[in-house]
Amino acid sequence: MSTPAALLAPGLRCLRSGRAPAWGAAAVVLVAGAGCRPESAIDDKTAPRVLAVAPSNPVVPVNVALALTFSEAVDPATVDADPISDGATVVVAEQPRAESLLTDLKTAGLNESNEDDVLAIDVVVAEALVTITPRAPLRPATAYTLIVGAGVRDLAQNPIVDGLGLAAPFRYDFTTDAGPPTVVAADVNGTTLVAPNRRHITVTFNQPVQGVGDDTLTLQPAAPVEAVLVDEARTSATLVLGAPADGCARLVPTTTYTLAASPGIVADNGQTLLPFSTSFTTGAACDTTPVVVTGAVEAIAGETSATVRFETNKASTTEARYGAGEALDCLGAACPALGAPARTATSGSTPPRFAHSVELTGLQLGVTYRVVVSAEDDVGHVARAEATFATAPIPKVGVNEVMANAAAEPAGEYVELANFGDETVDLSGWAVVIDDCTARLPVGQAMPAGSFLVVAGLAFDPAAYALPADVLVVKVVDEDGSNGMCALTNSRAERVVLLDGAGRPVSSFSSTIVPSDDGRSVERTAPEAPDVESSYCRARSDVGATPGRVNSVVVNGCER
Q: What span, in angstroms and rounded, lies between the C-alpha atoms of 453 and 448?
C-alpha cells in the first residue's frame, strides 16, 4: 500500500513499499521511511559501497551478527535474504560453496535451487547500516563468505560496487572461532585399568588453550605431580607424576581416581573451558614390560625436510634429535622434535604394533644426517634407535590433470603426470596414491623431459581421448589387485599423491573441486604451479579434457 502524498515529509518521494516476509522466510526489516527517498536522490549517480564490516576481526564467534556500513542509505526493498523468493541479494554460505554463487549474484538474485547452499539469515536495514544475523549458530572453526549482490541498490537505484569500486558482488570472507574450549580426549578412562606406576596422564583439547597447571588439571585423591607439560600447539597437556617414595607405584593400587580440568583453562578467544572430569581405577600390579623399537627406523627425506617413521610394541610418546655429524642439535629448530603420541595399534597387527612419525625441518640439500628417536611409554620406560639419511633433489614431475568423472566410467578415469624439468626421470617404483589406495608404476618406466604420462586402469582406451601417438600411457593395478587403477570418486574431492621410489611425496593434488560434468577433468594451471588449491580449476568447457597435451587452462585461463 502506498503512502498518501499528504503524509510524506517535505522533500520525500516514495519509490515502492516493502513487502512483508512470508512466515518462515528470511526476514528483512524495513525501518521508518523505507521505500521513500529525498527528491535530491533522483539525481544521485554515485554507486554505494561498503565502507566497513563489524566485527572487523575476520575470526568471529559462532553467534556473530555482521554489520555492514554503506557509503549511503540502502533501499530496503532491494535487500532480500530469501532464496525461495527467486531474488535473494544477500547471502551467507560456507566456503567453497559460496564460490559458485558469486556469478549468479553479479547480475540477479539467487533462486530457490540454491536454497540448500545458503544459510537462513535475518537482515535489518537502517539507512546506511545493514545487519545480517544467522538464525542458528554457525559451525565452529569453519570458513564462510558473505555476499551482497548487484541487486542491492541505494535510494536512487544505483547498484552497489565492491570495495575497489568494481562491479558487485561485494564479498566478505570470515571464519568462526572454535567456540568454548573442551577436553576431547583423555588417555585414561573408566573401562581400562591403569598401572599404578603410571608416569604420564594426557588430555587433549579442541583448540589452543592457556592456564594449564597443576591447579587446573588435577587428580583426586591427590598424587605427587612433577610437572605439567603443554605441547607446542597448546592442544594437549600431560601430568608427569613424581617418582614413588618406595617400590614402583606412583598411584595407590586398586584405587579409583578422578581426573579433572577446570574453567581456569581458557582459549585464546577468552572463553573458559567447559568443565571436564573422568574417573579411572588403578590395577594391583605395576607394568614391567619394556617398550621396544621394532624393526628399522625409516627416514624419508626431501630437499629440506624429512619424515622419520618407526614402530614400537607399546603405546608411547615420540621424540627425535637430529643433526649433521655428532651434534644432535636439531639444526636450531625446537629440540627435540616431537611426534604425535602413538596410542592406537595398527589395525590387524599381531602382536600389536604402534606406528610413530616425526617431522624434521631445517635440513640442507645434499647433506647426510643422523637421527636418534626415543619412545617413552606411559610408565616411563624408554627405548631408543637411530638411523642416517641424506637429502636429495625432488624430481620435477607433477600431478597435472585428474579425470574422476569420465564419460565412459570407470575405464576413462586417469591421472596425468607432467615432467616440467630438463632431465629424464626414472619412475621405477613410483606410486600414485588415491586416499588409501596405491597403484605402483613398473620398474624401468622412464619419463623424458617435457613429456606427459597418463596413468590409468587396464581397461583405459587412449582412442577415447584422441591421445597423441607419442604420449606415454601406463596401465596399472592397485596393490590389492581389485580395482584396476585406484578408483576416483565423482561425488567428492580426493587427495591424489605422487610418491617417488623412496616413498617421498613429489607432488599432490588436493583440490576441493568436485568434477560435476561427464568428461570434464580438473587441471593444474601450470605444471610447475605449487600444490595449493588455487593451482587447480576445471578444464574449460569449450575444450574439455586434455590428457597428453597442454592443459586448456594453461592456454586460455580458468573459467570463472
A: 10
Q: What is the DSSP string of 1-56?
A: -PPPGGGSPTTEEE--PPPPPPTTSPPEEEPTTTTEEEGGGGG--PPPBEEEEES-
Does pLDDT of 107 surpass 80?
Answer: no
Average pLDDT, integer, range 440-464:
89
CA-nearest of 259, 264, 294 to 375 is 294
Cβ atoms of 99 and 173 within 8 Å: the answer is: no
Number of domains in the chain: 4
Q: Are residues 464 and 537 in the same domain?
A: yes
* 286 within some domain: no
Give domain status of residue 287, yes or no. Answer: no
Q: What pLDDT digit, counting tens, does each position of 471-508 carry?
A: 888 888 766 655 556 666 654 556 789 999 988 999 98
The residue type found at 188 is V
Q: Is the dihedral of CA 474, 475, 478, 481 positive or negative?
A: negative
User: Do 417 and 275 reside in the same domain of the chain?
Assistant: no
Residue 26: pLDDT band (50, 70, 90) is very low
531 Cα distance to chain centroid:
14
Query: How many residues are present in the chain?
Result: 560
* Other CB atoms within 10 Å distance of the CB of residue 75: 24
Cell of 345: 595399534
Residue 531 has pLDDT above 60, yes or no: yes
Same domain, 463 and 418: yes
Q: What is the pTM of this model?
A: 0.62
Q: Rounded distance, CA 18 to CA 211, Å?
A: 52
The dihedral built from the CA positions of residue 40, 41, 42 and 48, taken in this order, carries a sign that is positive
Q: Which residue has the higher pLDDT, 519 or 252?
A: 252
- Percentage of the residues of the chain whose pLDDT score is greater than 90: 50
State the residue range of the domain holding 231.
Answer: 183-281
402 plus 324 within the same structural domain: no
Q: Coil, strand, or helix at residue 536? A: strand
Residues 441, 343 share a domain:
no
